Amino acid sequence: MCSSDLGETLHPEAAAWVNGVAAHVLDYDDVMTMMRGHISVAMVPALMALAQTCDANGERFAAAYIAGFEVMAKFSRVMALPHYSKGWHSSTTLGVLGAAVACGVLLDLSEAQLVNALGLAVSQAAGSRVNFGSMAKSFQAGQCNAAAVRAALLAQKSFTANANALDGKYGYMALYAANEDLTPALATLGEAPLEVERTGIDIKKYPCCYAIHRALDALFALVQEHKQIGRAHV
Length: 234
What we know:
Blueprint: E1 2-3, E2 9-10, H1 12-24, H2 44-54, H3 58-85, H4 90-93, H5 95-106, H6 111-122, H7 135-156, H8 172-175, H9 183-186, H10 195-198, H11 213-232
Antiparallel strand pairs: 1-2
């Protein structure tokens, strides 16, 4: 059991869902531009929920986060733009893959268990841009975190999934992408510089879509400029 922002004690899945919704509802979370999404909101609530159940320290938490970051970044390099253009909410549909890996690393899953966790994540990957502007957008972020926790915990208990869930005939890359080849990108997993250094994270200045931040900067600059012009003519 673990805590949520409601001040209640909840099962890790439920806590991950509640905190995932809360983390995304103001649209003030960080951004990976290449992903067309919000990378931390897809993982941190899930990791926080599980960390309390396995007494993970800060170093272990950070290692799990970096592992999930690496996976999301590698996928993003291959297919994020067309994936997002089709209407998928990549924060959640891509995020659940990295989050499942992050949760698996936190739980110290074996390689076989991580494969199953990823397969179980594929079976739960969901989220549509049609819901942007509604409560359902933050619901999707909560669902991403809950799904990642569920996938990792089930894999820990020997629940299985297809080992070809990512690149099989009817796998993730066939259904959510255009059958792009993941092999070259995934072959560099863990190599320096890590994606967290190479790609980095952008921090929002305003609680809204990151794509309009430059326009807002220009608008506020114009407002300030015209205020000064107005004062000069008084």
